[in-house]
Design goal:
Strand content: under 5%
Distance between the termini: 19 Å
Shape: globular
Structural class: mainly alpha
Order of helices and strands: HHHHHHHHHHHHHHHH
Number of domains: 1
Number of strands: 0
CATH class: Mainly Alpha
Radius of gyration: 20 Å
Number of helices: 16
Amino acid sequence: MARADAHDPLAPFRSRDYRRFSGVALLAAMIERSQGVAIGWDVYERTGSALALGALGLVQFLPVLALFLPAGHLADRFDRRWVLGLSFAAWGAANLLLAVTSLAGSHTGWIYLAAAGLGSALVINRPARDALLAQLAPPETLARAVAWNSSLFQFASVAGPAAAGTLIAATGTASSAYLANVGFAVLAAALALAIRRRPLEHAARARSLRDLLAGVAHVWRTKPILGVITLDLFAVLFGGATALFPIFAKDILHVGPAGLGWLTAAPAIGALAMAVAQSAAPPLRRAGLVFVWAVAGYGLAVIVFGLSTWFWLSLAALLAAGALDNLSVVIRATVVQLYTPDALRGRVSAVNRVFISSSNELGAFESGVLAAFIGPVATVVFGGVATIALVLGALRLFPDLRRLGRLGG
């Protein structure tokens, strides 16, 4: 087989299996991003409570905390295609429960039960998907494959929320978005199983807690990985405003569910533009410093969003936040893959995912609780300021980040 050309922007797509994997990644992102809009609007319409929105994040995080170790071991020990199939089955079942709850007008407790199912599906899905990507792309094109994968995620992050918001506005119910996700889950499972099976560098059966914690130990020993995922964790934990978007859409910007869809999609539009640019550009020469200052810029954009009362300025701030976030996400994902052997990729990806879920879901909980006491605007502005402060601290705490140079070919 000819060696892949690291300078060919479309090199990953020369592989049929990568094209199938791309379909899986696109559908998974459509489910993940559209359901966030649907559930957020559903809960806020029923309760009018910022605390209820924050509780959604906590409910989705608890399964991640409970399952990330076995989920990583599943991805290292068993056929990753079938692990993906299992996760999509769980995702489809949770969305079906949400659809029934919405149509029947059932108690909101059922929404939280389904949200826990969504969290369980995600924690099983992502380590297997991340680890499978590294099997499909050779090292010389891995950074480009990660960038394209991020582009697909961001495209879905635009299309999914916009479509969900439009469907809710047109039908007056979130059930249509939930039912669409059931269909996406079935199609994604079929595409995952169509990928050609590849041999694994099998991890041994977990005989002790040490085996399960091997991914945690590798992250702790590997300072570039620890640095990028730690800074990303705290930046999104404090700087994430997504959970409060329903409040901004309804009570501050007065744009309704369709506007909520576009607020949710705006970061992804910026991220998509950045991801496409990174896919075509040569590898960064000073990836560590670019990562750090991208996170700082993200915090500044969050401050602007929090202070804005003009819809178009809010969208512009979210576009910038999304572009800068994507820049840091691609660097983080590439570092995690390049600094991890295949036999540990599932467990290390699971640790990475628990960091991401900690920032997203716990960040949603933190935002909801804080907004209940000091208001949504003050909560968002505080988060942006805290993010910038964290960047300054990270430069001292993780000096390896400043020395991180070119990644990949």
